[in-house]
Amino acid sequence: MSEMSSSSVGPESGRKSALIVEGGAMRGAWAAGVLAFLYERGMNRYDMVYAASSGACSAAFFVAGMVEPGLAIWREHACKIIRKTNILRRKPIIDLAYLVDHLFRERVHLSVEAIQNAPTRFCIVLTDCHTGEPVYFHARDERIFEALRATSSMAFATRGFDYVDGHPYADGGVADPIPIQRVLQAGATDITVVLTHRLNFRLKPTPRFLGQLAYPQFPAVASVWTTRQHVQYNAAMNLIRQPPEGVRVQVFSPLKPMPVRALTVAKKRIQAALLLGRLEASQQIAVPSPAAHPREDGPALSP
After folding, report:
1. Helix/strand/coil for 156
2. pLDDT digits (tens, 9 = 90+) for 155-174
3. β-sheet bridge partners, residue 2
4. Distance CA 155, CA 265 (A)
5. Please, what's the largest Cα pairwise distance for the chain?
6. pTM for this structure?
7. Contact, 177 vs 301, CB < 8 A?
8. CA separation (Å) from 148 to 140, 144, 162, 189, 299?
9. Is 62 strand, coil or helix?
10. DSSP letter at 94?
11. Which one-letter DSSP state was computed for residue 80?
């Protein structure tokens, strides 16, 4: 694994705080609701933020201090990002040009300057298409838009990759869906994790033939998606439950079935997920690190 920057994280001594935001396509509306709750409570100054997929999109607005504009995208525009009729035209059903180039760059205008001036080190998780390894892109210039396109490149719903500095990257959720090990290596001692699956969820492996169909140009990514993603995911969930001594973990995860799925387009359902995220965050704010719960197995993750 590699990081596309060599800058240090926070002060050299004392405790360090980290925020991790899981992706999940439209399930990310719930996570956006949680982030809005945290921001309103003044819990917005983290030493580092790591996120992938739709989690990275919401986290970018969070780090920039633009939570309300980010919520407006979810409330009013997210329903237009997915165009299921594009299947008939053999086009991607998720319109990343509309999401990133139009909404983030122009209509709502995610402020790169605000991210540069933030006290937080913001890293977008990507998957290197040539090696299959995770890359932690330090978002601090205009390349953030390229990185957000790449990390949002959901298998089958998009072409599955995009370019940053001319190099192909797939969604970071393939190689490192919940980068808790990474933030521990970076020295984090107080970690907030926003999940888009229930805490007892466990990921099942993706069938090998789907990897070959999704990433015909990039066998390394296909291999990671089908043989390692579920291992990484489940190990991260176990680490959340039992963090190293001296590390505090605050977890926010759905308590009820979500009103949205990965490719939901109904505006009212997306808005309901935003509200549910806020509500369930308020119910979990004082809950300590999780104890053991019965496991819930699930299919392979979509970003």
Report:
1. coil
2. 999 999 999 999 999 999 99
3. 135
4. 18
5. 56
6. 0.90
7. yes
8. 12, 6, 9, 27, 25
9. helix
10. B
11. G
Beta bridge partners of 193: 20, 251
Kindly state the helix (H) or strand (E) to which residue 137 belongs, with its residue range. Answer: strand 134-138
Dihedral class, residue 25 (left if φ above 0, else alpha if ψ from -120 to 50, else beta): left
| Of 194, 215, 45, the residue nearest 118 (C-alpha) | 45
Nearest-angstrom CA–CA distance, 136 and 48? 12
Q: What is the DSSP letter of 19?
A: E
pLDDT of 290 reads 47
Paired tokens of 112:
């790169």
In the predicted model, what is the mean pLDDT of residues 208-215? 97
132 dihedral zone (left: phi>0; alpha: psi -120 to 50; beta): left
pLDDT tens digits for range 88-118: 788 899 999 999 999 999 999 999 999 999 9
Report d(CA 228, CA 232) in Å as an integer: 6
Report the C-alpha gap between 27 and 94 in whole angstroms.
14
Exposed, middle or buried, 293 (CB in 10 Å: 0-12/13-18/19+)?
Answer: exposed
Q: How far from each other are the two terminal CA atoms of the chain, in whole angstroms?
A: 19
Per-residue b/e over 77-103, b at no fewer than 16 CB within 10 Å?
bbbebbeeeeeeeeebbbbbeebbeeb
d(CA 255, CA 241): 16
CA distance 18 to 150: 23
Query: What is the rounded CA–CA span in Å between residue 22 and residue 118?
Result: 21
**Helix extents (H) in 66-111:** 67-72, 96
- Which secondary structure element, helix H or strand E, spans residue 209, and what is its range? helix 208-214
Q: Please, what is the angle between helix 28-40 and helix 53-63, to 10°? A: 20
Calculate Rg over the CA atoms of the chain: 18
- List helix spans (H) across 159-244: 172-175, 180-185, 208-214, 219-227, 229-241
In whole angstroms, how far apart are CA 108 and each of 7, 63, 76, 124, 282?
29, 15, 12, 20, 28
